[in-house]
Design a protein that fits this description.
five-stranded mixed sheet, 8 strands, alpha/beta, 426 residues, three-stranded antiparallel sheet
Length: 426
Amino acid sequence: MTSPTTKPDAVQPEDAAAGHLFDTWFDPIEVGLRERVRGFIEEMIRAELDAALARPRYARRPHAAEHSDAKSGVAGHRHGSRTRTLMGTFGPTEITVPRARLDTAEGRTTEWKSTALRAYQRRTLAADALIASTYLSGTNTRRVRRALAALFGGAVSKDTVSRVWRKVKSDWDTWNARPLANEPIVRLILDGTVVRVRLDRRATAISLLVVIGVREDGQKVLLSVKNMGGETTEAWRAVLDDLVQRGLRRPEFLIIDGAAGLQKAVAALWDGVPVQRCTVHKHRNLLAHAPERLHDEISADYTDMIYAETPDEIAERRRAFIRKWRLRHRAVADSLEEAGEALFTFTRLPPSQWKSARTTNAIERLHEEFKRRIKTQTVLPSADTAAMLFWALLASGQITMRKVDGWHSLAKPLTQPVALAPDPIT
């Protein structure tokens, strides 16, 4: 025997039936404005067509004798209208767009096109900018819809966000080809940064090669960010050659991360330009050559040396560091000596510039901010997207760069390096 079962009618929970949190927030100003937007847009487009035909709707076409007047407009006729949906910062709205045919010199007619409302346009540029800015602020494509639901009424899908993002590529291509001859660059900061992207349905780590320039007034500016498949000499040389071909002047000072490929590329292109090895990267190298139990002691000795107040003090503590660690753990001393004088080139600058000249931290900070912004996306769809997103965060003002420390003294020439006396201990 089967017992009959009854299922209650599907009833929405009371909270769900009541709608979402902000649905009941009525604003008469917003409602009144949106009701009038449609009429305003339609009137603007009608006025544009009236100007093109030199007559308002239902008015007669001027006689042939009147065509000699320069203000008589273009011959043509109206032929109905069509409905278009347009989404702006005022929300989505349907508008009626007039249609017309214009006479051509060949005796044919052509469809009139509004300059205010482009063909196939579905969103205003301000709406596209708002969507792109929301995406750049650290929201993935799916969450943009929820973030802008109150403004656009749920009319923004993840596909809409992707289409808007593709529009940014034209600005990205223009930026990559811009001339640099008029950029008063006196210093370059070069480093590679690793990001994770989705390639062939797999999360892969790739290196973005980043070049930041410092202008004569001390302002930092992004010059290049490219995915070249690695940090080889050939990859870096391709990036630098591109900058030179676009007019980049010979820099007066270089700050690099210490990668062998970058060092060789810089030496081949700008031989004789003072080079500063990043002291933070070298610190990591020293720790990698020693057991963890020695890390705190190495860090203390290294910090005392790098952050000494005068070139003479730095040279003295450098000798002491090498003497001590040759005995304690020789690999650490050998790693420091490997960097040579390039680790202490900053001492040739005025002390006010030391803080900004010691490291490639300007790029490191950009990388940290970049990772924070893409945290919700986990991985990016392609290597090109990673480079473009890195640039867009700066170009849109989401991330800003300040002037370097000691920029007032950038014009001062470099002094001679402090010679390191040979140590008797071998």
